[in-house]
Amino acid sequence: MHQRGTEDPAERLQQKPETAKETDE
């Protein structure tokens, strides 16, 4: 799952949902 490191929304969602939302949109 580490294709782009930790820039993947799914990856961030597992760590920080809040950050995932900001990165997703």
Account of the protein in words:
Residues 1-25 are annotated as: Disordered. The protein has 25 residues and is mostly helical. It has helices spanning 9-15, 17-24. The termini are far apart. The mean pLDDT is 61.
Short description:
Helix content is 60%, strand content 0%.
Q: Share of helix among residues?
A: 55-70%
SSE ordering: HH
Q: What's the main sheet like?
A: none
- Low-confidence residue ranges: none
Helix and strand composition category? mainly alpha
Task: Please indicate the percent range of residues in DSSP E strands (runs of 2 or more).
Answer: under 5%
- Overall geometric form: globular
Distance between the termini: 20 Å
Region (Disordered): 1-25
